Amino acid sequence: MALELVKKVSQVIVFLVSTPLGYIIDGGILLLFLVFTLSRALHREKLLAQAAGTTYGAAQKLFVCIDALGRLGASLLANLPVLLIMGVISLSVVAIGETVQKVEASLEAANRIKELQAVLRNLERSLKVAEIRVLSTQNDRTTFEITFFDPANQQSIAETRTISIDGRDIYIDAIVLNFDYSEIAAGRKVNIAIPYRVFSDQVAQINGISLGGVDSKGIPYMFHRADDDIYGIAPEIYRERLKELVQLTSSDTSARPAGIVRSYYGSALHKRVSAGDRLELRVEQTGGLTLRERFPF
């Protein structure tokens, strides 16, 4: 409670002495104080003049103002030691407040990293991401249905979409997140592959078609986890930090400062398909991606 009070007082002091709005407030308070001081002195002298039956002209008013300002200056000078002590106390409060804020920020950052590390450990597992069913390969154009699964709900179907692309040889590309240089990885070698797009022998990689596979918040279904499957972190915190991690890795601009390297899969998965083929797309705990025939058993 006391530390919170010190922090708030420190923030107010810093605001008043280091921001444009603070300067305006300081100036306003000083102006109001001067107006109040001069008004009181002028009113007092006016009453005295009326009681004495003397005139109270502009010259007298000017003299009263100068005298009041002189008295104010003398009072400030006389109380200079007190003002200096108050200044020292204010600086001490600011120093203590900023120290408390830095310590709290460090602890919060350390806890955040710890939670992100727990999220990363939960993502390192092998699982089936999607199934692909080839519907047609007529006229050298492949049409297939891709079904993504949700690990949080006993691998229930999360999304199904139909994709058509020119060519018979299809390639599944992925974004690979390399955490080797990130504090989040805690010194471990960690790679996570996210299926990203499909291209073919007739459609260049750069013109590939997005596979989808993400929920309304932009989080890949493959990152979903049931409460019972989450370990080392509370489920609600896992989902909160997962959202942060996905945002962090959404672009090179945000990923690189965190030591995360985004790249496209070095060798995209390749398969020459025929109508009726059923394939299974999996991510492995090692960070790899596999595409294999789906067997009926």
Per DSSP, the total helix count is: 6
What Rg do the Cα atoms give?
35 Å
Helix content: 40-55%
Strand content: 15-25%
Tell me the domain tally: 2
Let me know the average pLDDT: 85
Shape: elongated
> Low-confidence stretches at least 5 residues in length (pLDDT < 50)?
none
Number of strands: 10
State the end-to-end distance.
63 Å
Find the structural class using helix and strand composition: alpha+beta
Strand order of the largest sheet: 3-2-1-9-10
The main sheet comes to: 5 strands, antiparallel
The ordered H/E elements are: HHHHEEEEEEHHEEEE
Structure description:
With 297 residues, the chain is of the alpha+beta class. It has 2 domains: 2-121, no CATH class; 125-293, no CATH class. The chain has 6 helices and 10 strands; from the N terminus they run ααααββββββααββββ. It has helices spanning 2-18, 20-52, 58-78, 80-123, 235-248, 252-255; strands at 127-136, 141-150, 156-166, 169-178, 191-200, 209-210, 261-264, 269-272, 278-283, 289-293. A 5-stranded antiparallel beta sheet has the order 3-2-1-9-10, with no helix packed on it. α1 crosses α2 (20-52) and α2 (20-52) crosses α3. The radius of gyration is 35 Å and the shape is elongated. The model has no long low-confidence stretch (mean pLDDT 85).
Question: Secondary structure elements and their pairing?
Answer:
Layout: H1 2-18, H2 20-52, H3 58-78, H4 80-123, E1 127-136, E2 141-150, E3 156-166, E4 169-178, E5 191-200, E6 209-210, H5 235-248, H6 252-255, E7 261-264, E8 269-272, E9 278-283, E10 289-293
Antiparallel strand pairs: 1-2, 1-9, 2-3, 4-5, 4-7, 4-8, 5-6, 9-10
